[in-house]
């Protein structure tokens, strides 16, 4: 998308809800980084500087931004989310993430609402949101779309509930369902419906992704994965790449490398131990593939991350 933050002004129709959203997120995220909230599915973030593009794994979620700008890169294609656009990730996806507009005066302020596709499927059954054909074409498992007044209104009502903890347990699920609904009926809601429609091609790919997500340490054969997804091996390979921009084996490799990185950074494991833990038999292969993804050998990259944390 070519729209920039200079393309809207404070007198546009969504200025008031955006300003309130920014104020609430600023209070919920007083420091840089990601912050949990009293609503389990809701997380908020703040950044006072731009970042380099970093490999990361996005789980199914809806991302809404009040201030600043961020992009997700999948197969070299950018998906922007900012005060004008929200981002939807409908399946687990290894992507590149980068904050491209942020400053101390106007920090990046955004929120992430985790999505369970099963909840979206249940909502589709209870409403008139149109399901897609089982043989519909498959698009990427993420997209950005124009923010709307009804969507921002639902998001704000969810945030306001954090000021009324006695109401949260009852009303938060209703606000979350409305957010799902607004996305489903939005301009690109068919993308989300496609992934949540039982036994569609995209749903079968989602099954394969869930298997890889939980069994990434195992040596899975493509035939075994295809059988679990009720597809031929060639069909799974083709449609999996349409959703994720990578093959199932490449996807599994990314999951392994990201988990190894987490184990080294959070638990202090040595590279060899982390490699073995996530399913690598060859330490040298692990080091080569780690460097290819993260730009440096394991120890060097982890040391750099720790130094950056200390400096911050």
UniProtKB/TrEMBL annotation:
Pfam families: AraC_N, HTH_18. It comes from the Bacteria. GO terms for molecular function: DNA-binding transcription factor activity; sequence-specific DNA binding. Keywords: Transcription, Transcription regulation. InterPro entries: Homeodomain-like_sf (IPR009057), HTH_AraC (IPR018060), Tscrpt_reg_HTH_AraC_N (IPR009594). Residues 206-304 form the HTH araC/xylS-type domain. PANTHER family: ARAC-FAMILY TRANSCRIPTIONAL REGULATOR, TRANSCRIPTIONAL REGULATORY PROTEIN. This is AraC family transcriptional regulator.
């Amino acid at each position: 998308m070519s729209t920039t933050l200079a393309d809207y002004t404070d007198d546009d129709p969504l200025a008031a809800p955006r300003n309130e959203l920014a104020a609430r997120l600023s209070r919920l995220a007083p420091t840089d980084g990601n912050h949990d909230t009293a609503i389990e599915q809701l997380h908020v973030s703040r950044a006072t500087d731009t970042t380099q593009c970093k490999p990361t794994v996005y789980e199914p979620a809806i991302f809404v931004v009040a201030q600043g700008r961020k992009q997700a890169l999948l197969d070299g294609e950018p998906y922007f989310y900012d005060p004008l656009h929200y981002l939807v990730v409908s399946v687990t996806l290894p992507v590149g993430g980068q904050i491209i507009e942020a400053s101390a005066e106007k920090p990046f302020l955004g929120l992430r609402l985790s999505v369970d596709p099963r909840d979206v499927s249940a909502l589709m059954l209870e409403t008139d949101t149109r399901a897609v054909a089982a043989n519909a074409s498959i698009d990427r498992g993420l997209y950005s779309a124009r923010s709307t007044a009804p969507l921002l209104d639902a998001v704000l009502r969810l945030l306001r509930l954090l000021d009324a903890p006695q109401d949260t347990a009852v009303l938060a699920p209703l606000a979350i369902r409305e957010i799902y609904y607004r996305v489903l009926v939005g301009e690109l809601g068919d993308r989300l419906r496609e992934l949540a429609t039982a036994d569609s091609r995209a749903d079968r790919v989602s099954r394969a992704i869930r298997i890889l997500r939980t069994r990434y340490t195992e040596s899975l054969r493509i035939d075994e994965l295809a059988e679990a997804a009720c597809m031929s091996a060639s069909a799974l390979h083709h449609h999996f790449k349409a959703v994720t921009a990578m093959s199932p084996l490449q996807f599994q490799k990314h999951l392994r490398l990201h988990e190894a990185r987490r184990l080294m950074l959070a638990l202090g494991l040595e590279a060899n131990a982390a490699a073995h833990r996530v399913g690598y038999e060859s330490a040298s292969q692990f080091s080569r593939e780690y460097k290819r993804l993260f730009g440096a050998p394991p120890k060097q990259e982890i040391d750099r991350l720790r130094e950056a944390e200390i400096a911050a």
